[in-house]
From TrEMBL:
PANTHER family: ALCOHOL DEHYDROGENASE-LIKE C-TERMINAL DOMAIN-CONTAINING PROTEIN, YALI0E05731P. GO terms for molecular function: oxidoreductase activity. Keywords: Oxidoreductase. This is Uncharacterized protein. InterPro entries: Sec_Metab_Biosynth_Oxidored (IPR052228).
Length: 221
């Protein structure tokens, strides 16, 4: 989180405004709970907490674009609707961690995040979109030797149902540009999926936001 803060501070100093903010960071790992120096699981740090930090730090620039009457849109590229029920007693999975739990909580946290953000920044578009299966080097860069060895084979096997990086990028750009003010969740074609498999609620939105703020205070102290 300190690295994210250093990056966003630099951007805040250099940019007068920001019309479009897209967050696409990802990690593929079979490790168990693998904590950053700040005590956050690395997978959740990349898939949720780091995204939250980036977006919240840079919202003043996005707000300036909105106040100028220009496009103001935020996109988090991950997996809308692919999560599971949120464990309200274990945000961050510090009590009961598993790879399955991390894989299910991250997408749901992002779903809730965009809902929460639109209430804090009305008039700005917040979109959570899925890129689908994309032929990237993510597997070959994984910390898992199994995933590294399977990376090329998997790309070949999934070629008929996967996207090139260029096509996936175009789909995600379309998803962001066609998102109006408020929160939206979109599939790999950029189509709105509504509230399908949304596991949040007003109570969860409040609790997750407060938990995340506390994690950030601790991480940046």
């Amino acid at each position: 989180m300190k690295n994210v803060r250093a990056t966003t501070n630099s951007l805040l100093e250099r940019l007068p405004k920001l019309n479009y903010l897209a967050i696409t960071c990802g990690i593929l790992s079979f490790k168990g709970r693998d904590e950053t120096e700040e005590g956050i699981d690395t997978k959740l740090a990349v898939h949720y907490y780091g995204r939250w930090r980036f977006i919240n730090d840079l919202m003043p620039l996005v707000q300036k674009a909105k106040d100028a009457g220009e496009d103001s849109k935020v996109l988090t590229v991950f997996a809308p609707g692919a999560g599971g029920k949120i464990d309200r007693d274990d945000f961050g999975l510090k009590k009961h961690f598993s790879l399955t739990a991390a894989a299910l909580q991250g997408p749901s946290y992002n779903d809730v995040m965009v809902k929460s953000l639109t209430k804090r920044y009305p008039g700005i578009a917040f979109c959570h979109a899925s890129p689908g299966v994309v032929r990237t080097g993510l597997g070959s860069r994984s910390s898992s030797w199994i995933l590294r060895s399977l990376g090329t084979f998997t790309n070949i096997l999934l070629y008929p149902v996967s996207y090139s990086e260029e096509t996936a990028g175009e789909n995600m750009l379309w998803a962001m540009l066609n998102s109006g003010p408020g929160a939206s969740r979109r599939n790999d074609k950029g189509d709105d999926i509504g509230d399908s498999r949304y596991f949040g609620s007003e109570e969860i939105e409040k609790e997750l936001w407060e938990h995340t703020e506390e994690e950030m205070r601790r991480a940046l102290s």
